[in-house]
Structure formats: structure tokens, C-alpha cells
Amino acid sequence: MSLIAKLTDSETRKRALLGIGSFLLPLLVWSLVSYVPFIWHPKVEVTVPGGVDYFQVGMLVDRVQFEDEVAYAREQHLALPAGKPANPIYLPAPHEVAKAFYTGFTKPPVQKDAPWLHESLWHSIQIIFWGFLISSLIGVPLGILAGTYTTFARLSEPFIEYFRYLPAPAFGALAVAILGIYDGPKIAIIVIGTLFQQVLIIANTTRKLEATIIEAARTLGARGVKLLTKVVVPGILPDLYRDQRILLGWAWTYLIVAELIGTSSGITFYITQQARYQHFDNVYAAIMIIGIIGFGTDLILGGLGRRLFPWDRAQDRR
Amino acid sequence: MNPNTSLSYLDQSADVKARFDRINQRETILEVRNLGKRFRSQQGEVEALRGINFSVRRREFVCVIGPSGCGKSTLIRILAGLESHTSGDVLLDGKPVKGPGQDRGMVFQGYSLFPWLTVKKNVMFGPQMNGRSHDEAERDARLWLDLVGLDKFADAYPHQLSGGMRQRVAIARALVNQPRILLMDEPFGALDAQTRAKMQSHLIDIWKNIDVTVLFITHDLDEAIYLADRILVLKAHPGEVQEVIEVPVPRPRTPAQFNSPEFRATKARLEELIHPAPEPESEDEQAVQPHLIRFTNVMDNVE
């Protein structure tokens, strides 16, 4: 018993290490590109303008152009400019992004009236929440019905199959016309983007419920609504929960488009605004925090799922 | 050769004859009259069952046996009400069967337990569906779990149980509804030989102590003879009743009887019915010609 415990213990530790490693690896690549001067660094940051009249301290110049100017200055016996290798402005180093991450929450934004990072984020989370909730309230029951009753599936699925190919952002203008310019159309885009996939995915999950389980329930006297609520729904619940986790990720991908519709808002507004002022460290910090929130939510939901569905064997296989 | 070859499966000892007389005096529980089933498939119309006639008396143990494709599963599914029939009648206590009902319990081959419910709640499912209160259902479930020897596992989930234990739960779950007839569709087919033998004697014990009639489908000849009062032998394409055999092996049954003359005579008859002269192989089958090359050292022989 203790041997098995030890084995699984070392197994979990190995798994955790690999998990951390999968994050450290890209960070390592990013650090190498940022901190090792001879890797990439296609630009030169001017430290001494020398005799080149348009050079300024801190200016980024292409390496070829810089070498041309150095050669020209040497020819003309002017003061030589100096510089150090640098990356383009759109690739800040990890520590700069980390700093932006911290200041994003602690210091007011440089531009007046611009939203704080966390304000933008909170707004985005609310949009996602309402979009996903409305989509689920319609999509989950429809999916279960379509998966259970063939007639219902045949009546609804062809149209849904057609509709899901219509790109959600294409409804942007229409949504604004109907729902105004604030949060309404944004939530609508997320609903349109998620709902149709949701119905089809959940209908499929429902169909995969073992036929014997339904038959056994019928021979035991279950029928009609009770068959649906006491057998079909609990039978698919762990898979339904997994589907919902995947679909929630889906909803996040529609967020960026949704937030560009009507008045820009939320994290997308923050990102475009910061990019406009070339604060790329802030842009990266904002993009990463979307990932952190999405991934974090999924981890929490995954852990919750293991507690909610102790009988679910599929979780052990992960 | 064998001194017992003269014994026919039709010869019954006085005890056995008396037992069959008693069985035949009991009332009929299940009557199947001229039952037929046709369905359309991609290969055209298939006749799965044709003109099936038989009846089962109260507390009788009937096995159905036949080659694959004889429609024995279709038959039991029709009896359970999970499938419709195209002609004839199925009467339970004289009333025609319509859809599934709690008067017919069913045990499936696959593990049909509800994985999200504990063992106890699985057994409580039937009573609760039929309007019993939670407490009544729980009391019944405890009783039946005790009867199949799983009271200690009441709060376990099905995935934590072995195959044999799961089928015990499935039996308890079907019996708690107190069905008139227990339909069993190759319930022990997926179990290993040892567990299977144990489950067979356990099933006989249950049947002896409870007012229940059993219709049991199997493809295992030994299992059929060991369990049954009568064996319904089906033939395939279309599924028809070939013979109804009254098993001459006396009760109580023990595994020691597997070598008794009655047992062997019955088995010989069943083999004759189910495995007639081998059919010629299909063309595809003949096309399979293994071409073996020696992959090992010529000196490295295993035989």
C-alpha cells in the first residue's frame, strides 16, 4: 500500500515538474532572445549620437543603417556614434513585462481617463460571464433534448449546423443596430459564437450515453421526464461539465472581437490603447493576464469536477 | 465404449418426472404465441424471429440457447418491451405486454448499473421510480443487497466493484421491483470461469428462495443444462424454436453432475442441434491463407 502511495507520489511530483517545465521552456526562449545580445537583436539602440545629426540617445535603428552611418562618419572624420544591440520595440524583455504587470495594478495609467488594467479586465469578465450564461441557459437544454429525441434533433440540427458557419463577428453591425453600442452587442456576439457549437456538442455528448443504461432504467420503470432528469442528465453530467469547460475557452476567443464592436471596452480597449502609445510591455501583460485567468479558471473547474463527480473514470486517464 | 451411450436425454428418472408434473400443474406466467419479428436492414428485409411458441410456468427456470444470429437477444428484448414485435402475442399473466414494465426485471450482459449512483441508490432506483418513498426504497434496497451479499458495499460506486459483484447488484436491482419474471440476457457472459460458476450457484440459491420465474439467455451449453428446468433451443435464419428440452438432470444441482450420464446425454443432444454438419467456408474465409516464414534459428525449436 505504502509502495503504491510512494509510486503515485513520485508520479505526481514528476508530472508537476513537467507541468512547470512546459511554462519555463518558452520563458527560457524569450529570455535568451531578450538578454543574449548576439541572438537576434536586429536593431541598435543609440547610446552616443556622435556626428550623425538625426541620431538621438535611446533611438532604435536598423543594424545595417547604423553600420552605414558609422562607416560614413569614419569616412568624414566625424565623431563616431555608439550603440548596443537591441530588439524591436514590439518585443519587450521579460522583466519589463513583469514590471508592467505589477504597475498595471498599482499605478494609474499614463494617459488621463484611460481605464486601469484591472478595471478593463473586470469589465471583460462580466461580458464573458453574461454571454456564457445566456448561451448555456439556451444551449444546454436544447443540446440535451436534441441528443435524446431524434425528432427534435432532426428538426433543429440542420439549421444549427448551417448557422454555426456564419461568423459571429459578421453580426456585429446588426447587433449594434438592435442592442445599442454598449455591452448588449458584445454579449450577443459571445452568445452567437458559443451557442450553436454548444447545442451540437452537447447533443453529441448526450447521444454517447450508453444505450444499456437507458434501457435498464426503462425496465426499472423510468419513463418520460423522469428518464430525462434521473438518468440522461446525471449520466452525461461529467461529460457535459467537460464540454462546458471547453466552450468557456471558446467564449474567451470571441471576447476580443466582441469588444471591438460598438464602443471599444474592456481588455481589448486597454490593449489597443496601449499599443497605440507603443507601450508594448503593457500589451503583453494584458494578453498574458487573459491567459492566466482562462487557464486558472479551467484548473479550478477541473479540480471542482473531480470533487463533484467522484464516479467519473475519464478523469483518471488524464 | 461408454456404457451410458444408451441413455437418451428424453429418459427421465421418476423424481425428475414427478418434478415436471408439478411444474406443469402451476399456472402459466409467460405465454408467447406465434411471435415474429421482421426489420429492414441495409441487406434488405430480415426475418429475425418466426413463429415462436412457448410458455413459462410460475417459478420455472427456462434457458434459451442457440447459435449466434438466432435472435435470442431480440426475443428477450421483445419480452422486456424494449423492442416491438411484428406478429403474434406476448402475454404476461394473460395480459399483452406493451413497453417495459416493472413486472419484468432485466439483467443485461454489459454492466448496466448507473455509474453515478452508489450501489444502494442503484437498487433504490426501481422502487423510487414506481412511487415508493425514500425510506421504503432504502429499506428494500438494504434487504436485497443483504440477500446478494453486498450489504457491506452499499455506499461503494459501481466502478469500485468486480464484474461478479456488479452483476449481483444488477440482480438485486431487478429483483427489488418484485417482477413476475426475471429476464437475463447472457448475464455472466463477460465473467471469468470461476466467478461465473459462483454466480450460477448463487442464482440458483436466489431462485430457490424467492417467488420468481427466470428466463435466461446463454450460449454456454453447460450453463444452460446446469441452470434450467427446460431449454428452448433456437435455430438461426430465421430464428425459430427447434426443440424444447426438459433437462433430465435431477435437482438439487451440483457441479459434480457435469459428468453424470443425464448431463452428457443432454449436452450431446444440444451439440447436435446447435452445431450441425459444418457449413462450407465462405470465399473470404478461404482466401485467408497464412504464409509462414521461419523467423528463428533453424536449431531453435519449441516443439
Task: List the topology elements.
The complex is a heterodimer of chains A (318) and B (303).
Chain A: H1 2-35, E1 43-48, E2 60-62, H2 63-75, E3 82-86, H3 94-106, H4 117-148, H5 150-163, H6 172-179, H7 183-207, H8 211-219, H9 224-259, H10 266-276, H11 280-308
Antiparallel strand pairs in A: 1-2, 1-3
Chain B: H1 14-25, E1 28-41, E2 44-57, E3 61-65, H2 72-80, E4 87-92, E5 95-96, E6 104-107, H3 119-129, H4 134-147, H5 163-175, E7 181-185, H6 193-209, E8 213-217, H7 221-227, E9 230-235, E10 240-246, H8 261-274, H9 283-287
Parallel strand pairs in B: 3-8, 3-9, 6-7, 7-8
Antiparallel strand pairs in B: 1-2, 1-4, 4-5, 9-10
Structure summarized in a few sentences:
Chain A is mainly alpha-helical and 318 residues long.
Give an overview in words.
The complex is a heterodimer of chains A (318) and B (303). Chain A is mainly alpha-helical and 318 residues long. Chain A is 70% helix and 4% strand. Chain A has 2 domains: 2-90, no CATH class; 106-317, Orthogonal Bundle (MetI-like fold). Chain A has 11 helices and 3 strands. Chain A starts with a helix and ends in a 10-residue tail after the last helix. The mean pLDDT of chain A is 89. Chain B folds into 2 domains: 14-103 and 179-278, Rossmann fold; 112-174, no CATH class. Helix content of chain B is 34%, strand content 22%. Chain B is globular. The chains are: A mainly alpha (318), B alpha/beta (303). The A-B interface holds A 210, 212-213, 215-223, 226, 230-231, 234-235, 237, 309-313 and B 80-82, 99-102, 104-106, 108, 110, 112-117, 125-126, 129-130, 157-159, 170, 173-174, 177.
